[in-house]
Amino acid sequence: MTTPTPTAQAPESAAHTVRGACPHDCPDTCALLTTVQDGRAVRVQGNPAHAHTDGVLCAKVSKYTERTYHPERILTPLKRSGPKGSGQFTPVGWDEALADIAARLGAIAARNPEAIVPYSYAGTMGLVQGESMERRFFHRLGASLLDRTICASAGAEALVQTLGGKMGMKVEFFAESQLILIWGSNSIGSNLHFWRYAQQAKRNGARLVCIDPRKSETADKCHEHIALRPGTDAALALALMHELIVHDWLDQDYIARHTQGWEALRARALQWPPERAAEVCGVPVEQIRQLAQAWGTTKPAAIRLNYGMQRVRGGGNAVRAVACLPALTGAWRHRAGGMLLSSSGQFPVDRAALQRPDLLGARRPRTINMSTIGDALLAPASDRFGPRIEALVVYNSNPVAVAPESGKVVQGFAREDLFTVVLEHFQTDTADYADYILPATTQLEHWDIHLSYGHTDVLLNRPAIAPLGQARSNAQIFRDLAACMGLADPCFADSDEALCRQAFGAAVDYALLESQGFATLTGPDAPFAEGGFPTPSGKCEFFSDRLAAQGQDGLPDHLPNHELQGTDARYPLAMISPPARNFLNSTFVNVQSLRAIEGRPLLEMHPTDAAARGIVDGGVVRVFNDRGTYRCHVAVTERARPGVVNGLGIWWRKMGLDGTNVNELTSQALTDLGRAPTFYDCLVEVAAEPATTAHTATA
Ligand SMILES: Nc1nc2c(c(=O)[nH]1)N[C@H]1C(S)=C(S)[C@@H](COP(=O)(O)OP(=O)(O)OC[C@H]3O[C@@H](n4cnc5c(=O)[nH]c(N)nc54)[C@H](O)[C@@H]3O)O[C@H]1N2
Ligand SMILES: Nc1nc2c(c(=O)[nH]1)N[C@H]1C(S)=C(S)[C@@H](COP(=O)(O)OP(=O)(O)OC[C@H]3O[C@@H](n4cnc5c(=O)[nH]c(N)nc54)[C@H](O)[C@@H]3O)O[C@H]1N2
Ligand code: SF4
Ligand SMILES: [Mo]
C-alpha cells in the first residue's frame, strides 16, 4: 500500500503542496499542485512552473476535492445483494471479496481463460493504474485481450498510415501560427490549454477557422465557422486539395522530396471541385474556395484536428485526407505549421516491461472489441467467436453509459450467468450491474506516471493523501488478486512506485520527474521540416502501400456515413453527441456543482427543425430510431445546424428522464479504419412530448 510523500518536510498541521498530474482523458495532461492540510487535500490547482498548464485548470478538475471527498465515494468492497442491475449491495471485507473473486475467476480460467474479459479505458490515463499490473494479471491468466477502440483508433490508424505515427506539431508553436484550422474540436471545452496558445496567435494577428457541424463555444470565438454535415470532412479536404492544385498553391519541392503517391492523389482530388464538396458538406461553395486560398497562401498555417471528426464510417479516411494538407503546401517546413491530432506516439514507453505480454507464453487469446461489447456479451459460444463471455472485470471505464447501443450493452450486463467485477470510485451505471464493486483510489491517493496526447511532457503523480476508507489502487487490487490466485511470478510484487520507474526506464530522467514533477521530451521543433516521416517509405504517404496490401483503397476518399441523411425517410435528422464542457465523458456527472452548470440532459435543435415539429425551447422531446428511444429536454438554438441535432455530454443513464442516455440511439457499426465506433453517424427522429408526461430527473 502506498503512503503519501510530501514534497516538503512540514509539521503535520502546516499546509504543504504535493506535485501531481491530471489523470483524465484530455489532451492537456495538466500538472497539479495539491494543498494538503492535516492529511486532507484542501485545494487542487495548476502548477505555474509547468508551461502548458500555466497555473490554470479547467472547471472540472478545480473541483477535485469535491469529487474526492464526495459523500457517495465507494470506500469498502461491496457485494451484490439484490437482482442484477438493481444497484443493491452489502459491504464486505477485502479478504472475503478477494477470495471469492479469485475462486470464481480461477474456476473459469481452469475451463477456458478466454471466457474472462478485462474492460478498461481512460478513466485514468496513468500508465501504472491503467496499463501495468492488470495487464500482467490478465496475460498470466490467458484472458481475452481487449481492442481499446472506443475513442481514437480510427484517427490513430490514419495517422500511422499517413505520417507514420501519432505525432505532429508541438502544441506551443501554434502560438506563432498565422492561420489555425480548428477541425472537429471544441477546444475551449475539451482542449483548453491548446486554446490558450490559439488565443496568443489570434492576438498576434492569426486567423482562426472552426470546422464543426455544431456552433460550439469555440466556433463563437473563431473568425469563421464552417458548419459542415457530420461525416463529410474528407469531401471538404479533397476540395481544398482541388483548389490547391488548380491555383498552384503547392510546394512542389516538398511534394517531390517528401511525399509518396502524389500523381494518384492529384487525380483523386481533381474529382472534387468545390461545387461537389459544397453539395456533400452542405456549406456555401465560396466558403470552401476561401478556405483553400487561406490554407494555400498563409504561412505558417496549422491544423488542430481532434477526434470529434472521426466518429463516423469514413473517419479514418477523413483523417488521412486532412493529414495530406500540410505536406501539399510544405506547411511542415515551419515549426508553427503542420498539424496535430495526437502526440502520444512520441513517448518512449516501455510497454513490454509494464504489461509483460511474455506472460502469455505460447497462448494467443482472442481479442474482443470494446466498441461492440453489447454484441459480444450476447454472443453464444461458436467456432468464430470462441467461448461465451463468463466474467468481465471493468476498471477505468463506464461502458453501460459510454458504449454504443446501450440497449444491447444493458442486456449483456444483465445476464444472470455473467460474473462482473467493477473497480470504481462511484456507483456508476456500470457498477449497478456488478457482482462485486471494489473501491479504487483516486489520483490524489496513488502513484502514477503520465504521457500526454496533446503535448510532449512526461508527468509524475505523487499521492497527496492516504487512500480514503479502504480504497486500494488498481495496481494494488490486481497485485492482491494475483496473490490470492497463487500467481507466483516476481513481477506481481512490484510496487506502484517501482512501476512508475519502469514506465520509461532510462529514456526519461526520473530524478527530474521527482524534483519538478515533469520532464520534456527532446525532439526537433519542426518534426517533418526535412521529411523524415516514420512511415515505411520515410515519406508522407498520400498513397499507402500497406492499406493497398490489405485490399483497401491506398488513397484517402470520402466515404458517406453508414446512416446517410435522406436514405431513411423515417429518420431525417443526423445526431451527434459531443462532450459537455463540464463533464469528462461520463466522469463528473455526479459532482453536484458541475452538474448544476450543465443543467439536465439536453438536445440542441435548430429553430427550423423545431418549428416543423411543433417543438418549443425547454420542452421535453422523444428522440428515437430503430435501436431505441431517449427522452430529454430540448434547447431550440442555432448552435445546431439545420438537419443535425446535438445530444450533449455523456450523462449517467440513471440521471436521465427515463434511465437512458444518448447511447440508447447510437449503433455498433464500426469505422473504415481502426475498428472504432461511429457515435456521430446516427440518424434519428425527434417528437415533442405532451407537457403532462414531463418528469423531473431522478437523483
Ligand atoms: N470538457 C471535456 N473535455 C474533454 C472530453 C469531455 O468529455 N469533456 N472528452 C475528452 C476525450 S475522451 C477526447 S477523445 C478528447 C477529444 O474529444 P472530441 O470528441 O474530439 O471532443 P471535442 O474537442 O469536444 O470535439 C468534438 C467536436 O467535433 C464536432 N464534430 C462532430 N462530428 C463532426 C464531424 O463529422 N466533423 C467535424 N469536423 N466535427 C465534428 C463536435 O460538434 C464537437 O464540437 O477530448 C477530451 N476532453
Ligand atoms: N455518444 C457518445 N458516446 C461516447 C463518446 C461520445 O462523444 N458520444 N465519446 C467516447 C469517448 S471519446 C470515450 S474516450 C469514451 C470514454 O469512456 P470511459 O473511458 O469509460 O470514460 P468515463 O465515462 O469517463 O468513465 C471512466 C470511469 O473510470 C473511473 N475511474 C477513474 N479513475 C479511476 C481509477 O484510478 N481506478 C478505477 N478503478 N476507476 C477509475 C471513473 O470514476 C469513471 O467512472 O466514451 C465514448 N462514448
Ligand atoms: S481535464 Fe484537461 S484541462 Fe482539466 S485539469 Fe485535466 S488535463 Fe487539465
Ligand atoms: Mo475519448
Automatic annotation (TrEMBL):
Q: Which family does it belong to?
A: Belongs to the prokaryotic molybdopterin-containing oxidoreductase family.
List the cofactors.
Mo-bis(molybdopterin guanine dinucleotide)
Domain 4Fe-4S Mo/W bis-MGD-type positions: 15-72
Q: Which of UniProt's keywords are assigned here?
A: Iron, Iron-sulfur, Metal-binding, Molybdenum, Oxidoreductase
Name used for this protein in its record: Molybdopterin oxidoreductase family protein
Looking up CDD domains in the UniProt record yields:
MopB_3, MopB_CT_3
Q: What are the leading ranks of the lineage? A: Bacteria, Pseudomonadati, Pseudomonadota, Betaproteobacteria, Burkholderiales
Record the organism.
Answer: Acidovorax lacteus
What InterPro entries does the record tag this protein with?
A: Asp_de-COase-like_dom_sf (IPR009010), MoPterin_dinucl-bd_dom (IPR006657), Mopterin_OxRdtase (IPR006656), Mopterin_OxRdtase_4Fe-4S_dom (IPR006963), Mopterin_OxRdtase_prok_CS (IPR006655), Prok_Mopterin_Oxidored (IPR050612), YoaE_C (IPR037920)
